[in-house]
Amino acid sequence: ISRSEFEAIELTHNQAKQDLRNAQNDYQIIRRGSVGGGGANTNIRATVSGTILEIPVEEGDQVIESSNFGAGTTIAIIADMTKMIFEGQVDEAEVGKLKMGMELDITVGAIEGENFIANLNFIAPKGKEENGAIQFKIEAGLKTDEESNVRANYSGNASIVIEKRDSVMSIREALLQYDKKTKKPYVEIEKEEGEFDRVDVKLGVSDGINVEVLSGINKEDNIKVWNAESKKDKENQDN
Questions:
Q1: 91 and 142 share a domain?
Q2: Same domain for 150 and 176?
Q3: Which residues are paired to 190 by β-bridges?
Q4: Structural domain of residue 127, as residue ranges?
Q5: Is 202 helix (H, G, I), strand (E, B) or coil?
Q6: Which of 61, 211, 231, 237 would suit a FRET pair with 17, their CA atoms being 20 to 30 Å apart?
Q7: Tell me: the pLDDT tens digits for 150-209?
Q8: Nearest Cα residue to 76 out of 58, 91, 94
Q9: Domain for residue 90, yes or no?
Q10: Is the Cα torsion angle 136, 142, 148, 151 positive or negative in sign?
Q11: Percentage of residues in the chain with pLDDT exceeding 70?
Q12: pLDDT (tens digit, 9 = 90+) per residue, 1-52?
């Protein structure tokens, strides 16, 4: 054969040998994690102490170190179980009442008879629509100790005291009436048997059931249960 034909065949042969070596190296990487006769030993140390929650890789998996071009492979998830975060959702109607640092009372469904204290440290600046309502994400630092049996991803509920009053006069909100024009609240006070006078009242804090009364009535006044009377009148009309 001519020299040019020989050189072309030799080049093809050398390329095939190189492809074979590359394939063998890939096989060794998949099988042992490295190329060569000896195994690769790498010491990996966590930057923080804590409890291992998850190991998402298995023996023989390829891992990549973090760099400017990527986050690398996560080989373990570690958490300090004494410094946990409560995540919750608050409706748009209530989020305006929250302030950073507020104390939350956390109840965990899986742990009966024990409450945990948390402090609000994050309120989302933007809400998300869920089931037709706008919800805002909140986060609070949960205070636990080593003896607490709190685990990651437990579900729980948080109660927040927006305002608090002690030793004040209050009435049931169901007793209130509102002026159709001014929208101001009032109640009807019994003056004589079967006769009632309208009295405007100034209200304070409400929990949705009872409301604080700042002025307008005193504790000796008998207040008309107007909604119960209306219900009776309606029943009589129906009969």
A1: yes
A2: no
A3: 196
A4: 83-154
A5: strand
A6: 61
A7: 888 899 999 888 888 888 899 999 999 999 999 999 999 988 877 889 999 999 988 878
A8: 58
A9: yes
A10: positive
A11: 89
A12: 788 888 889 889 989 998 898 888 777 777 665 555 555 566 778 888 888 9
> How far is the C-alpha of 16 from the C-alpha of 22, rounded, in Å?
10
Residue 94 lies in a domain: yes
Distances (CA, A) of 27 to 20, 31, 34, 36, 100: 11, 6, 9, 11, 56
Burial class (CB in 10 A: 0-12, 13-18, 19+), 211: buried
116-138: pLDDT as tens digits:
999 999 999 999 998 889 999 99
Q: How many domains does the chain have?
A: 3
Encoded tokens for 28:
């060794």
Say which CATH number the domain at 115 has: 2.40.30.170
Q: What is the mean pLDDT of the chain?
A: 84
Question: Looking at the structure, do residues 146 and 176 belong to the same domain, yes or no?
Answer: no
Instruction: Look at residue 100 and tell me if it is in a domain.
Output: yes
pTM for this entry: 0.55
Do the beta carbons of residue 39 and residue 32 sit within 8 Å? Answer: yes
> What type of residue is 233?
D
Cα–Cα distance measured from residue 168 to residue 162, given in angstroms and rounded to the nearest whole number: 17
* Bridge partners, 122 (sequence order): 139
